[in-house]
Q: What sequence folds into this?
């Protein structure tokens, strides 16, 4: 697959380099892109900041469909863990190997990617995750803290509550991508 050169790089590079980046707008665009995928039967399976680019026009572009699942068909490329994604962004049920990539797993990873956008750092920071923390993540009881860049106004508080639901240890309790996109689009 060939794609155009994206000068801004990944969404995390973009927010790092753009002082006036519209975090909320980027998250809204990202949720719209994931909504499009899910509506068309595509599960991405590896949503993370490195797989989200920002064009010169400020448009979010989702890439790296190497572990995606399309209408129940797996596309196997070079990943040995097809359908598994990247660990820090993975839902607990995927880490426990109870399932491969799912829409609910994409929702969990989307929430982690949003944290990445707001913190300019990968989920749980740049340090190694210890055994106890890893056990809490796998159990679905450990979640990232609220980023200081997320405003403490009514919109920011509602957004934070939505993110908390994205990380539910019970995948059936996570919001749908349609629900996420509609809430973000309303502002």
A:
């Amino acid at each position: 697959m060939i794609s155009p050169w994206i000068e801004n790089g990944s969404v995390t590079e973009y927010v790092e380099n753009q002082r006036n980046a519209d975090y909320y707008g980027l998250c809204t665009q990202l949720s719209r892109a994931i909504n499009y995928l899910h509506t068309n039967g595509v599960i991405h399976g590896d949503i993370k900041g490195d797989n989200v680019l920002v064009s010169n026009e400020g448009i979010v572009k989702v890439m790296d469909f190497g572990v995606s699942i399309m209408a129940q068909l797996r596309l196997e490329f070079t990943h040995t863990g097809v359908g598994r994604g990247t660990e820090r962004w993975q839902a607990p049920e995927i880490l426990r190997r109870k399932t491969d990539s799912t829409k609910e797993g994409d929702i969990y990873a989307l929430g982690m990617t949003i944290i990445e956008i707001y913190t300019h750092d990968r989920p749980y920071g740049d340090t190694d995750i210890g055994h106890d923390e890893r056990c809490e993540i796998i159990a679905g009881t450990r979640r990232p803290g609220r980023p200081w860049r997320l405003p403490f106004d009514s919109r920011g508080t509602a957004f934070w509550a939505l993110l908390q639901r994205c990380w539910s240890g019970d995948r059936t309790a996570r919001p749908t991508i349609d629900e996420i996109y509609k809430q973000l689009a309303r502002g």
Observations:
- Helices lie at 11-17, 23-39, 92-95, 103-119, 131-139, 154-166, 177-186.
